[in-house]
UniProtKB/TrEMBL annotation:
Assigned GO CC terms: cytosol
Family: Belongs to the LDH/MDH superfamily. MDH type 2 family.
Protein name: Malate dehydrogenase
Designated gene of the protein: WBGene00279005
Listed InterPro entries: L-lactate/malate_DH, Lactate/malate_DH_C, Lactate/malate_DH_N, Lactate_DH/Glyco_Ohase_4_C, Malate_DH_AS, Malate_DH_NAD-dep_euk, Malate_DH_type2, NAD(P)-bd_dom_sf
Enzyme class: oxidoreductase
One GO process term, biological-process aspect: malate metabolic process
NCBIfam families: MalateDH-SF1, PRK05442.1
Catalytic activity: (S)-malate + NAD(+) = oxaloacetate + NADH + H(+)
């Protein structure tokens, strides 16, 4: 069997997919010297587009790219996958909110959860990019639970995290690498809570608390939050399509950090199944049966897939515990929990229909 990493991208012929494939192929996530096999999946209607992307990737003459498959069957797509970037679903259009998409998209993720359980490796790491990303990831993890642990599923709030970092950097007059420990709490939606209160900014070699470095606490509690959380909608309004290359870059950052780890003293925002931290409903472990065995199996069902500050080491994320939250933060976090609980119930209903 090949020792190359098998990396699946669904929605590969879409706009995010088009940016994602090259970044992954040229080593931005797994490293320039790591052999990879890319599996590009999309619906049959996109076959020509998919094949043209396959050709372009071949034409890049990348030495680490061992193979590129263009497939439209789930079985071929999900078989033996090590990493999955799930970016295929119905996209949000101008004027739509994320929950307008919910019923249609969670059914796709129910089916992909089952596909992952049936065909992928039990160690597969999954990043859900498509909206409503947190709830899609929750559903996908639930339907894959008979084989893949819930903690292998995540959703993309790194885009919001990067947007928050960039806004603070702009305001403080520094480059983005000088800003750390920003947190995006909750859902990838406009109830998310971008929180700068634990962030720091290094300016002229000295590390400051972000509110001090930007010199405007009113901005931190108002304009900063609305700019970050509404950014996706504003881009859709202007571009008449979802943000694409920034989403792809964020997906690469997310997976890179999941593999490589976070530096000492730093955390990043990642949507992961809750372990009950900060009052966010957690999942459960159940003993049960699978389709092929009748006893002794342990399944982990996901808690709410919620954006938390996490540290990562040896490919495993840990939610940063014990951060102090003021009343303002607690209220904001309660709102985004409530939205995710509603989305979860709607999604479970749609999956049972
Ligand atoms: C974004 O945040 O830009 C994307 O997730 C698009 C969207 O639907 O908000």
């Amino acid at each position: 069997m090949s020792t190359a990493l098998r990396v699946l991208i669904t929605g590969a012929a879409g706009q995010i997919g088009y940016s994602l494939v090259l970044q992954i192929a040229k080593g931005d996530v797994f490293g320039r010297d790591t052999p990879i096999e890319l599996v590009l999946f999309d619906i049959p209607l996109m076959t020509n587009a998919l094949e043209s992307i396959q050709m372009e990737l071949i034409d890049c003459a990348l030495s680490n790219l061992i193979g590129v498959e263009a497939v439209t069957s789930e079985k071929e797509a999900f078989t033996n996958v090590d990493f999955a970037f799930l970016a295929g679903s119905m996209p949000r259009k101008e004027g739509m909110e994320r929950n307008d998409l919910l019923a249609a998209n969670v059914r796709i993720f129910k089916s992909q959860g089952k596909d992952l359980a049936e065909f992928a490796k039990p160690t597969t790491k999954v990043l859900v990019v498509s909206n409503p990303a947190n709830t899609n990831a929750f559903i996908c993890a639930k339907y894959a639970a008979r084989k893949i642990p819930a903690r292998n599923f995540s959703a993309l709030t790194r885009l919001d995290h990067n947007r928050a970092v960039a806004q603070i950097a702009l305001k403080a007059g520094v480059t983005a690498d000088k800003v750390k420990n920003v947190i995006v709490w909750g859902n990838h939606s406009n109830t998310q809570f971008p929180d700068a209160s634990h962030a720091t900014v290094t300016k002229n070699g000295v590390e400051h608390k972000a509110p001090f470095a930007v010199g405007d606490s009113n901005w931190i509690e108002n304009e900063f939050i609305t700019t970050v959380r509404d950014r996706g909608g504003v881009i859709i309004e202007k571009r008449k399509a979802c943000s694409a290359f920034s989403a792809a870059k964020a997906a690469c950052d997310h997976m890179y950090d999941w593999i490589t780890g976070t530096p000492l003293g730093s955390f990043i925002s990642m949507s992961v199944p809750s372990d009950g931290s900060y009052g966010v409903p957690e999942g459960k472990i159940e003993k049960g049966m699978s389709w092929t065995s009748f006893s002794g199996l342990v399944f982990s069902f996901p808690g709410l897939v919620f954006s938390f500050p996490v540290t990562i080491s040896d490919g495993e994320w840990t939610i940063v515990k014990g951060l102090e939250l003021n009343e303002f933060a607690k209220e904001k976090i309660a709102l985004t929990i409530e939205e995710l609980l509603n989305e979860r119930d709607e999604a479970l209903g749609a999956c049972e229909e």
